[in-house]
TrEMBL record:
<dbReference type="InterPro" id="IPR050312">
    <property type="entry name" value="IolE/XylAMocC-like"/>
</dbReference>
<protein>
    <submittedName>
        <fullName>Sugar phosphate isomerase/epimerase</fullName>
    </submittedName>
</protein>
<dbReference type="Pfam" id="PF01261">
    <property type="entry name" value="AP_endonuc_2"/>
</dbReference>
<dbReference type="InterPro" id="IPR036237">
    <property type="entry name" value="Xyl_isomerase-like_sf"/>
</dbReference>
<dbReference type="GO" id="GO:0016853">
    <property type="term" value="F:isomerase activity"/>
</dbReference>
<feature type="domain" description="Xylose isomerase-like TIM barrel">
    <location>
        <begin position="19"/>
        <end position="257"/>
    </location>
</feature>
<keyword id="KW-0413">Isomerase</keyword>
<dbReference type="InterPro" id="IPR013022">
    <property type="entry name" value="Xyl_isomerase-like_TIM-brl"/>
</dbReference>
């Protein structure tokens, strides 16, 4: 089992501490989603003039960069040029760090008809991947926002290059927000799933259906069964903790949630 975490979970940590703690806690990799307040990390010295030092630090710690998580919303026409520029920058980082994946969102579609939205996402993917493929990079569409349903994601993946676009299965969102069963998600998307995000939550009584994030294994997301499903179907990608401390400052700190995640996940293999 390969374990990673997104840097959303430790938004105040400097790079040195991220690398130190990743090794200390028993992770195999880091998924970069912002660093010390800057979401587009390619703008930071650590990923520009000091990039060789950063790569050496990560490698010497026995770690990899499992993914660069972008802010790209593929559906958007208005931000297409901005999205294209972001994919170019992250593709260069992937090439330098030996990283295969860039995470992208589908994005909100508003009042747009679903078929038209699918057409737009497919069109934009074809243009974005003309850049990423030059660097041997695959874009991963996350089951998130208006693209949480497996049927909507499948409709896109059936029309794009499977060597250029895959699926990031956020284990939480389809189950929690749509009630989609893991077996149904896998049946629809399994051939494209190459990466996962892991998080847990619980719905409190009298909370009007609202959920609250909690430590891994302490909620009601069937993570153990999801792991067995993935294992049974030959999945060998990363299990990446997406602890959204940056967006939800009230949840536990990384010093508690990160090692607890590693311990929980390692127990699943026993």
């Amino acid at each position: 089992m390969k374990l990673s975490f997104t840097t959303l979970g430790c938004p105040d940590w400097e790079l040195d501490l991220i690398i130190q703690r990743a090794k200390e806690y028993g992770f195999d990799a880091i998924d970069f989603r912002g660093l010390t307040g800057e979401m587009n990390i390619y703008r930071l010295p650590a990923f520009q003039q000091n990039i060789h030092q950063t790569r050496d630090q990560i490698k010497e710690a026995g770690l990899e960069v499992s993914c660069f998580s972008s802010s790209v919303h593929v559906f958007s026409d208005e931000k297409f040029e901005q999205n294209l520029a972001e994919i170019k920058e992250y593709s260069k980082l992937c090439s330098f760090f030996g990283t295969r994946y860039i995470r992208v969102f589908g994005g909100g579609i508003g009042e747009t008809d679903r078929s038209a939205a699918i057409e737009a996402v497919v069109r934009h993917f074809k243009e974005l991947t003309s850049v990423s493929k030059e660097h041997g990079v695959k874009l991963l569409l996350e089951t998130h926002d208006d693209w949480t349903s497996c049927s909507d994601v499948k409709a896109v993946l059936e029309q794009v290059d499977p060597d250029a676009v895959g699926v990031l299965w956020d284990l939480h969102h389809p189950f929690r927000t749509l009630g989609e069963q893991p077996e149904d998600t896998w049946a629809a998307l399994g051939r494209w799933i190459e990466y996962t995000h892991v998080k847990d939550s619980r719905v409190l009584p009298d909370a009007d259906g609202k959920f609250h994030y909690c430590l891994t294994g302490e909620g009601s997301i069937p993570l153990a069964n999801m792991y067995k499903l993935l294992l049974r179907n030959g999945y060998n990608g990363y299990y990446t903790l997406e602890w959204e401390k940056k967006w939800h400052p009230e949840i536990e700190n990384a010093e508690e949630s990160f090692p607890q995640y590693v311990q929980y996940m390692r127990r699943l293999t026993n």
